[in-house]
Design a protein that fits this description.
Layout lengths: L2 H23 L4 H4 L1 H11 L3 H9 L1 H13 L8 H15 L20
Helix pairs in contact: 1-3, 4-6, 5-6
Length: about 110
């Protein structure tokens, strides 16, 4: 589990559990049935500085993931690549890296002048 999810789970575990259970029990309608629970997770997570930084730095990938979920409510498994992109960004933030470095880049690449 990425550090970002671990932080959110530690701070908002009960909210995440209720939301996850609702999504699992409501295929095809989870986006409607679980809306209030989604808001409770969001409200809980907004209170942590790391989560706020992830939301700021990874907003593009998160918005893409949310859009995928909205567009494919009956087949959320199609949103895997969006989740992966968001989680990679969040992991970079939690490790103090700039989000979105080129694939294969290492932290030392920039200091070598190219």
């Amino acid at each position: 589990m990425s550090q970002a999810l671990a932080v959110t789970a530690r701070l908002c575990g009960p909210e995440l559990e209720r939301y996850g259970r609702c999504v699992a029990e409501s295929p095809g309608r989870w986006h409607q049935d679980c809306h209030q629970l989604s808001l409770s997770v969001t409200n809980c997570a907004q209170n942590h500085p790391l989560v706020r930084q992830i939301r700021r730095d990874c907003s593009d990938s998160f918005v893409a993931f949310e859009r995928c979920l909205r567009d494919r409510p009956g087949d959320v498994t199609q949103c895997g690549p969006h989740v992966t992109q968001f989680l990679l960004c969040a992991q970079n933030v939690t490790q103090g890296l700039t989000p979105g470095p080129p694939m294969g880049a290492t932290p030392g690449d920039a200091s070598k002048g190219g």
